[in-house]
Every structure is written in C-alpha cells, then in structure tokens.
Amino acid sequence: MQSIRRLTIVAVAVPALALTACGSSSDKSLDQKALAAKADAICVSYNKQAKAIAQPKNINDPAQAAAYFQAAHDLAKKQRDELGGLKPADAVKTKWAAYLAAYDEGTTYFQQLADAAKAKDQAAGQKLLTGFQTLSTKINGAADAVGATTCGSKSS
Fold it and tell me: 44-70 pLDDT, tens per residue?
C-alpha cells in the first residue's frame, strides 16, 4: 500500500518536474514576462512527454523502478539543456538562477532514485522520495517567482 502511495507521489512529481523545465535558445535577453511566457509555452510539451513515461507496474521491482527513474532523469536533463538556452534579462537573472539550481537538484534526485533502484536499495529510494516532495515545492516556488506558473504551481 505504501509503495502505491509513493508511486502516486512520483507520478505527480515527474510531470511537475517536467513542467518546471522549459525553454528555447535566443541571443536576446528576455524580461520576466517574456521569459515566463516562453517557459510556460514549452512546459505543455514536456508535460505530455513526462506523462508518456511508462510507470512501473510494480514499483518494488528494482528493474522497473530503475527504468522509470532513469527515463525521468533523461527527460529532465533534456529539459535542463533547453533551459540553459533561455537568456534572462538582468532584472530576472537571480530568480532564474534560483530556479535552475532547484531544477538541477530535481534532476539529480531522479538519477539517485534510478541508482538506488539498480542497487536494490529500497531504504535509500524511500528517503529520496520523501526528500523529493520537499524539493518539488522548492522547484514550483522558484518557477512561480519567475512567473512561470504553468511550470510551477499550476503544473500538477
């Protein structure tokens, strides 16, 4: 029963993280409104991709869990690469940097979850999942601070 609840948390966390990571490249710096608009527009696409990640039928099966979290990590990394292409204006650089830092933590969590599953370390996996709940709030708050609410609090 607890495994199902944790899988549900992760099922919400993957799209939430996916939605927090959006962007495109440009040489022109973006004010906060433009930055948020670009991020939010792309988040829709990443949410669809995150929802398409096949959830494990049995989260207690290390191979299934590892495949799931590795796919989540790979998608998050791809999104992070695109985020790096957005160029915030000076007035929003600090907020954007905070968002990217929080997002990077989330990407790391997905890799750590995949690694814990591969190592069949259920205790580490459960500890990471608990920590990810708090981190999701941080990521959403940082996205909201930029104005990218579709990538933040409206992502779930």
Answer: 788 889 999 999 999 889 999 999 999
Token pair for residue 28? 């022109």
What is the rounded CA–CA span in Å between residue 139 and residue 129? 15
Residue 60: CB partners within 8 Å, gap ≥ 6?
3, 122
| Farthest CA pair distance, the chain | 50
- pTM attached to this predicted model: 0.80
Which residue in the block uniquely carries the two structure tokens 């069949």? Answer: 120
Give the other-Cβ count within 10 Å of 31's Cβ: 14
For 103-140, write each residue's pLDDT tens digit: 999 999 999 999 999 999 999 999 999 999 899 999 99
CB 150 within 8 A of CB 30: no
Query: C-alpha distances in angstroms, 141 versus 29, 123, 125?
Result: 22, 28, 24
| Tokens at 37, concatenated | 């608009």
H-run or E-run covering 18: helix 2-20
Average pLDDT, the chain: 84
CB atoms inside a 10 Å sphere around CB 1: 5
Please, where are the H alpha helices in 21-121? 32-51, 62-83, 93-118
